[in-house]
Amino acid sequence: MGYPDDQLARGEVVKLHTRPHWKEAVGPVLWFVVFLLIGAIAIYYSTKIDGDWKMWLILGEVVVFVAIIVWLSVLPWIRWQSTHYVITDQRVMWREGLVTRESRHIPLARVNTVSYTQNVWERIFGFGDMNIDSASDDGEIELVDVPKVDKTKALLYQLAEDDRTRRATQAGDGI
């Protein structure tokens, strides 16, 4: 699921497009496998029961296990797939959601500080949480589980510096 080009300004170039680290998708996949297996075992043993209510028991099990799988697996997977972290040559964008969307944008000119945190586990697997503080009323954006967070921070600083240089050059040319 790519980031739509119609969200970009004319001439804006995407420098980085990523989503939260793949570890966010591991949990939903494991829950899917576990509850699919448990559900299959439960239904298998339910078919061996004699009684008029056997079909209702199986139907109830199917409904319960489908609900659990949707809640613990499908919805988190969709949330992970629909979260975008995009850095362009003009701004930083965060977008989340498939049906109901939430989005934040910070122009590079308004980026004040960029910081990140990583615990030992996150350093081993190469991700971390990044905070981008802006010089606007919106405050900051917190990007959770950013892959290669140290390289992303360096890229963001470089792009912000390039943007400042470009703006200074344009202002000098306009005088």
CATH architecture annotation name of the largest domain: Roll
| Amount of beta strand | 25-35%
CATH class of the largest domain: Mainly Beta
CATH topology of the largest domain: PH-domain like
Could you tell me the radius of gyration in angstroms?
A: 23 Å
Compute the number of strand runs. Answer: 7
Uncertain runs are none
Counting structural domains, the number is 2
The helix-strand sequence is: EHHEEEEHEEH
Write down the oligomeric state: single chain
Shape descriptor reads elongated
User: Biggest sheet, open or closed, and with what strands and sense?
Assistant: 4 strands, antiparallel
Please estimate the helix content.
40-55%
Span of the ends, CA to CA: 44 Å
The number of helical segments is 4
Strand order across the largest sheet: 1-2-3-4
Mean pLDDT: 88
CATH superfamily of the largest domain: Pleckstrin-homology domain (PH domain)/Phosphotyrosine-binding domain (PTB)
Structural class: alpha+beta
Structural summary, described in words:
- The chain is of the alpha+beta class.
- It has two domains: 14-20 and 84-173, Pleckstrin-homology domain (PH domain)/Phosphotyrosine-binding domain (PTB) (PH-domain like), CATH 2.30.29; 25-79.
- The chain has helices at 23-46, 54-81, 120-125, 149-173; strands spanning 14-18, 84-88, 91-96, 102-107, 111-117, 127-134, 140-147.
- The strands form two sheets. A four-stranded antiparallel β-sheet has the order 1-2-3-4. Strands 5-6-7 form a three-stranded antiparallel β-sheet.
- Helix 1 runs antiparallel to helix 2 (54-81).
- The longest helix has 28 residues, at 54-81.
